[in-house]
Amino acid sequence: MVQILSNMIRPVVWSLLLAILVGTISTLSSISLMGLSAWLIASAALQPPLYVLSLAIVGVRFCGVMRAVFRYLERYFTHKVGFSLFTSFRVFVLTKIIKALPFKQQTENGDAFDLIVNAVDNLRDSFLRFFLPPIITTISVFILSIWFFIYSFFGWAMECIVIRKQLGYWENRGFAKLPFCVIYGFGVFIAFHIFAPIEGNYTALYVAGAICATIFEYMTARLMQKLFGEVWWNYDHLRFNYKGIICLQSTLGWGLLAVLIFSVFNKMVERVVFSMDMRVTTVLSIVLVISYVVDFSYHFTKRIANKKMESVVAQASSAGSLQRFFHR
User: Fold this and answer.
1) What is the SS3 assignment for 229?
2) Which of 133, 251, 261, 316 has the fewest CB atoms within 10 Å, i.e. the most exposed one?
3) From CA 215, how far away is CA 254, in angstroms rounded?
4) What is the pLDDT of residues 113-172, one digit of tens each?
5) Phi/psi of residue 287, each to 5°?
């Protein structure tokens, strides 16, 4: 049964994951709206200057709009996926029943067939609301986990090869010890939703892939600078670069990579993932997720602790220098 459901969700797997994503954003917007509203009301009671409350006021408006927009998108995608899956399920059930029952012996008025169709249709609400969501979500998460880590691994391998060519030695390009660059997994996942309408137009796909990947690379670099005070790549040695974090050569390469992923690579990955036995997919996805979460958490906390220690040492060194200056 699980294998049958896995085959049914194959055409809508990206829409299903998009529904989960927008649902999560909608929930987070609701939580943020409640928190910001409570803080705004409590702070306004103290009658501070308006500029103190201005950011919270904008935040409340923003979260309110986000909650409404993403709630609508969640309902749209969940209903789209749900009715599509129910249609596939109804066709599957009726096909099995037709093969099993001796319809040639029935009368020509089709009463038996009508009864079966109505019985299957009566399952719609319970099927869509109670039975389908937990099973499909679980299967989709397992499948997408394998998908995600395949792209993360190939992104890691690509970066290792490029660095080997540039520096002359091998270097682990993952954040932690495991051979994954999850930025590529997230990047491909986002790209499949953004570029789905133009996946057959390779010229538009190249241009959009080059621009969006460069923006994503820039935002990632800024986030890394904020968290760790450094960026793990440097384009200073290349022409037409901006602060060493983006450059023209990488932008052109991202466009080519987008075309290759949509035209060739994803079809191969799709065949591999959906040809795997569901039990193997489940076990492998659980092992990969748990292993990476543990590995990432350990190295992330270690890097944050090192950054704080460096900050403390720098402050202590600065204070010592000032003390020696005044003692003179």
Assistant:
1) coil
2) 316
3) 11
4) 666 666 666 665 555 566 556 655 666 677 778 888 888 888 888 888 877 776 677 777
5) -65, -45
